[in-house]
């Protein structure tokens, strides 16, 4: 590739060490470049799909002179939906690129309980509409040094997925607890589940287990990659595993616990 400048040097002297480091660095640059390229090509593909639908729908309206008003109206509504999908995709792409390039924002100690309660409030109409019970067990005083917006985004994406990929009369259980130096946020569901072989890939950009279901639910395949990137930005991690005794999934986010305001300021 463009970055193959392997330096040939022998021995264990300083130059050899330097050469090693140089090789490692160019290797890293190469993977970053590859990741970027794949991202652009995946993104273009995702944008092309709704655009192709819009094209098809407009063509059929324009070319079919006998089309009744009712059908035409349906087609226009479909066009509107595709346009909305494009908006969602571009918004999320912007979130992701902003994360890559923007300078780190001001963080503060945030009590995660209140953030999750806000998300619970926002998502309860959706949960009700699909007949899923949303339960929260939230400990007080679980402080994390981050921004409210970022924590909201993380909780929202995970809880929305847990509802979207659930089954009628299903359940979502959100647990927040602080143990030792760590804050745990778990979102467990009784939903459709994720096959073992897909688990390592679901945090990748645009990865979807069931494309049809994700589309029907208005998904973009970007939600979990935003969760992962955002959690990492604040020193956190996120993992997904099969939920024992159910078909569902358990997502777990961890953050370094912020003990007191004074301690948090770095
Ligand atoms: P999407 O916009 O498609 O929901 P995400 O990045 O949020 O994108 O999730 C990626 C994929 O992971 C989803 O398309 C879905 O197949 C799977 N997934 C995410 N959360 C769950 C869940 N709680 N249960 C089952 N599958 C899930």
From TrEMBL:
Subcellular localization, as worded in the UniProt entry: Membrane
Keyword Membrane: yes
One GO location term (cellular component): plasma membrane
EC main group: transferase
Domain HAMP, residue spans: 1-34
EC numbers: 2.7.13.3
Keywords annotated in UniProt: Kinase, Membrane, Phosphoprotein, Transferase, Transmembrane, Transmembrane helix, Two-component regulatory system
Domain of life: Bacteria
GO molecular function annotations of the record: phosphorelay sensor kinase activity
Record bears the keyword Transmembrane: yes
Residue ranges annotated for the Histidine kinase domain, each copy included: 42-259
Protein name (record): histidine kinase
Lineage per the UniProt record: Bacteria, Bacillati, Bacillota, Clostridia, Eubacteriales
């Amino acid at each position: 590739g463009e970055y193959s400048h392997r330096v040939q040097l022998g021995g264990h002297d300083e130059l050899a060490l330097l050469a090693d480091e140089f090789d490692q660095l160019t290797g890293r640059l190469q993977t970053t470049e590859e990741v970027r390229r794949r991202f652009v090509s995946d993104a273009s593909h995702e944008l092309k799909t709704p655009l192709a639908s819009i094209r098809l729908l407009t063509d059929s309206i324009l070319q079919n002179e006998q089309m009744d008003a009712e059908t035409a109206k349906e087609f226009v509504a479909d066009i509107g939906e595709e346009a909305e999908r494009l908006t969602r995709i571009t918004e999320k792409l912007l979130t992701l690129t902003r994360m890559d390039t923007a300078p780190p924002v001001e963080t503060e100690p945030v009590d995660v309980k209140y953030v999750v309660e806000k998300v619970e409030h926002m998502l309860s109409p959706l949960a009700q509409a699909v007949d899923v019970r949303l339960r929260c067990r939230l400990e007080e005083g679980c402080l994390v040094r981050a921004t409210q917006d970022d924590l909201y985004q993380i909780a929202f994406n995970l809880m929305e997925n847990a509802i979207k990929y659930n089954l009628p009369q299903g359940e979502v259980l959100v647990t927040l607890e602080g143990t030792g130096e760590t804050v745990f946020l778990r979102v467990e569901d009784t939903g459709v589940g994720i096959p073992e072989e897909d688990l390592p890939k679901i945090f990748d950009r645009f990865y979807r287990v069931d494309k049809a279901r994700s589309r029907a639910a208005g998904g973009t395949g970007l939600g979990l990659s935003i969760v992962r990137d955002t959690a990492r930005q604040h020193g956190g991690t996120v993992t997904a595993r099969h939920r024992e005794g159910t078909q569902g999934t358990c997502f777990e986010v961890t953050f370094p616990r912020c003990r007191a305001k004074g301690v948090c300021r770095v």
